[in-house]
Amino acid sequence: MNTSSEIKELVRQKYAEIANQSKTANATSCCGATESCGEVYTIMADEYKGLEGYHPDADLGLGCGLPTQFAKIKKGDTVIDLGSGAGNDCFVARAETGETGKVIGIDMTPEMIEKARTNAEKRGFNNVEFRLGDIEKMPVTSEVADVVVSNCVLNLVPEKDKVFSEILRVLKPGGHFSISDIVLTGSLPEKIRSAAEMYAGCVSGAIMKDDYLSQIRKAGFTNIVLQKEKPIIIPDAILLNYLSQEEVDQFRSGTTGIYSITVYAEKPAKCVPGVCC
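Predicted structure:
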């Protein structure tokens, strides 16, 4: 992989392509694999169908958790969704925050923003809006959100520390986030780590779990809670696009683990000098 800007452009192009495909097509093209790759997004994604506010045509099958289920959203809250895609998590959040609340989705891919706005307009959701922008520099003023959610997006961002700093900025004092993401224990093989398709597929951009949690602490968040954790198993059909069978066997027998986590953290209610001031 190359510079941060090149990585972001790769991700933008990939997700522009995804925005114009069906969920079924996405499932069979994930991570740049060919035929039998459909398992990956199925394995990563959790089941939304039981959640109020779920709209299947806004679900592109790209998540790795259910952050809105754990986000403690209350009626009247203002919620920001990072990497909002076609609007899936925004619409679930809207069901929680109600007519008196507000949901703001942020995405860097124009095609996703267009798709999400169309989905919102079709349903008459006047308190859900979608803004084009980078989550490392959100198009949102400071201290406006009660809750921030995100689903399998931060792993796509090279400078994750900037995102956590931005989340702290846009949250009100005492506000909190619930984020689902992909993290690692151990190291990925270099051929996977350097593969552009595996980056866009939410795998090679993942960092060590301990480093991920450390960045949250360093940003100034408190009461950090791991709300859910589950292993992600990449099928051999995908790994064999990058590794030999011998290398796949070595990877399987090694210590590397790939996990979907959902993590919760709070912005201090009172600003502590040197932490969030």
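Summary: Residues 4-266 form a domain with the Rossmann fold fold (CATH 3.40.50.150).
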